[in-house]
Design goal:
Elements (H helix, E strand, L loop, with lengths): L4 E8 L9 E6 L4 E8 L4 H19 L7 H21 L7 E2 L1 E7 L2 E7 L3 E6 L2 E4 L6 H7 L5 H6 L19 E6 L5 E5 L1 H4 L4 H8 L8 H17 L6 E8 L8
Antiparallel strand pairs: 1-11, 2-3, 3-4, 3-5, 5-6, 6-9, 7-8, 7-10, 10-11
Length: 254
């Protein structure tokens, strides 16, 4: 089966960092999309996120002839976790490295997501932006406990402290999410370099004018606008995001 998904990607080191520790994967043929935001000193974060993407892609290729679903997506993330952890144990310079991961598999109008950390998956549906993933972060726990608002979390000094990551331990719990994907919906995968500086309301406003059939040139301009907002506001972190949409209303074809 061929996945009729179109994609746009933007990634930037930002205005502060020297290296880009984000990694991403776009595999439209297999319907697999990943963003990862690495962490760790001495460029270890760059190594961790790249290892995550490579491990997930490798597993997907190994299982290419088999039917795949959310269970296989979880296995791919677990394999990535173990590889990163093993590498950090062997190399003192990489000790403690880790990465977020938000991996998406598209199959016949369904979104299957495996998620660890504070990168995010969104769906823009009927003019409204919906966050599909739950951040594994200190401030998200405070929001859930009612101690701070979501708006306060965005400016909180500990907003970058995550409570779960790939590679920091030998085992990790992976969140699994399944959602329907209608023809009219846009999907956004992003690292926190976007959401720390651009509010969900602003993202929604940028995409609100979009209606099917989506025009690539218009979406390219929307992607550019999101990146402009990040950089205008300081670009304190690396930023990576993928915008995905249906190519045609037929969905999947043989």
């Amino acid at each position: 089966m061929k996945c009729p998904v179109q994609s746009i990607v933007r990634t930037d080191v930002g205005r502060v960092r020297k290296t880009n520790e984000d990694s991403y994967l776009i595999d439209c043929d297999d319907g697999l999309f990943v963003v990862a935001d690495g962490m760790g000193g001495h460029e270890a974060g760059e190594v961790a996120s790249a290892l995550a993407v490579k491990a997930i892609a490798s597993y997907w290729q190994e299982e290419r002839e088999k039917a795949k679903g959310i269970h296989e997506l979880e296995i791919a993330c677990q394999k990535a976790n173990y590889q990163i952890y093993q590498e950090s144990q062997k190399n003192p310079k990489l000790s403690g490295m880790g990465t977020t991961v938000t991996a998406l598999f598209v199959s016949q109008g369904s979104l299957m997501i495996a998620h660890v950390g504070d990168s995010r998956a969104y769906k823009m549906s009927l003019g409204k932006l919906h966050q599909l993933t739950l951040d594994h972060s200190f401030v998200e726990e405070m929001v859930r406990q009612g101690k701070i608002t979501k708006e306060e979390a965005q400016a909180h000094p500990q907003r970058n402290v995550i409570t779960r990551a790939l590679g920091t331990h030998a085992e990790v719990k992976v969140d699994l999410i399944e959602e329907k994907w209608a023809y009219e919906d846009l999907v956004l995968l992003c690292t926190d370099g976007l959401t720390n500086l651009v509010t969900e309301q602003e993202i929604e406003e940028v995409f609100k004018i979009m209606v099917q059939p989506f025009q690539r040139d218009v979406l390219e301009k929307s992607a550019d606008r999101l990146m402009e907002l990040v950089l205008e506001r300081g670009g304190h972190d690396n930023v990576t995001f993928l915008i995905l949409w249906h190519e045609d209303q037929e969905g999947w074809s043989q």
